[in-house]
Amino acid sequence: MQSITAIAHLRSAILYFMDLSEQCGYSVKSQMQLFRSLKPLFANKLIFIVINKIDILRRDQLDAETAAELDELISSTGVETLELSCNTTEGVQEAKNHVSDRLLAHRVSEKVNAGTNSSGVIGSRLADVMARIHVAQPMEVRESFIPEAALGKKKYNKDDPNRPTLSRDLEEANGGAGVFNVDLKADYLLANPEWKYDRIPELLDGKNVYDYVDPDIEAKLQALEEEEEKLDAEGYYDSDEEIDDVETAEIRRKADQIRTRQALIRNETRMRRIKNRAALPRSSIKKPLSQLEDSLDQLGVDTEELQLRGRSQTVTRGRSTTRSRLGTEDSNAMDIDQTPRERLRSKSRARSQPATNRREDGVVDELTRTMAEKQAKLSQRKMNRNARQGEADRHTTASLARHLFSGKRSLGKASHR
């Protein structure tokens, strides 16, 4: 009932569908009785009775008694009837168009009636609207004109041998799609139809190039080529004179050396470039003395004094096996017998150097070491699962989070303790 009340307040048309075949589960009399009970709710509205499923049973196929009751219902209520079939879509579009046109006309008439008084005079508000509306009407009615050629045009039939030739026929006759090209010049409208396929002139500086072409240009070009071949055969273009002198050759040789050296420098720079480190300034990069000597030798500079100076400033750093202080022991002095303790200390290892390789201790071959490493990884799984750093990790996390279980309990917090 709520939906019916909502429809009653809408500015729309009411379509009441009836099923004369009674496949909906209700008899025709029950459907008519329902319409009579709903009709008073739709006052001042367009109402249509739509007879559906005409593909099963039409209105003229009803029995005499039911047909008489239906006619009496339609005549007494003053509604319009429409017939259609939603299954076969017969009459559906016609019904939609008819209802739309009737609803539009009904709304326009309601607006016009709302702007007129009881005597039929248009009010001021509607008069202002009507004054702004102008419907143009033709001064004379002209009848439609259809040329005789269009009336007598024969309908196209694909099986007719005398049918007009279409572009599709030309396409099939000339290789089909992808091969056939549409002739765009066939529809040119020119004074002389023979001009359709003439070549379009090429213009340069506002002048036709073809007007300045020498008709004997090919003959002249052939004569010129023959003359060139004759001079070449006679050795006219051959010359024993050396074009480059000694100075020019020396300059070119040095230029080649410079280019080769530049290419080598670029390659060395690319090889030295380290992309995963920060770039250091050139002043902070230390270079060996040998690199400086090589560079100066290539430039022709004597590096003997530089070598002596560099070696005099070099201080050897290392660890003596006898633990003697720097400068207190003569290298040419006689060896002195040492005590067993001193000999043991002199042969002792650095603290950072292990006594043996722990990775190979207790392992006889490579297969045994591989199995031992695999077993170590398996034993580490449990610690990894418990988030342990190693066998010595005994850390125990707090079982109760302090920020949740400490402090004063306020109202509504007792359930969390």
From TrEMBL:
Domain NOG C-terminal: start-end pairs: 166-217
Coiled coil located at which positions? none
**Protein name per its UniProtKB record:** Putative nucleolar GTP-binding protein
Residue ranges of the region described as Disordered: 308-417
**Highest taxon of source:** Eukaryota
**Record field: compositional bias (Low complexity):** 309-325
The signal sequence is none
Q: Which Gene3D superfamilies match?
A: P-loop containing nucleotide triphosphate hydrolases
**What species was this sequence derived from?**
Rosellinia necatrix
Bias (Basic and acidic residues):
357-376
Nucleolar GTP-binding protein 1 Rossman-fold domain residues: 1-55
Concerning Pfam families, the annotation shows:
NOG1, NOGCT
What Gene Ontology molecular function terms does this protein carry? GTP binding
Where does the chain cross the membrane?
none
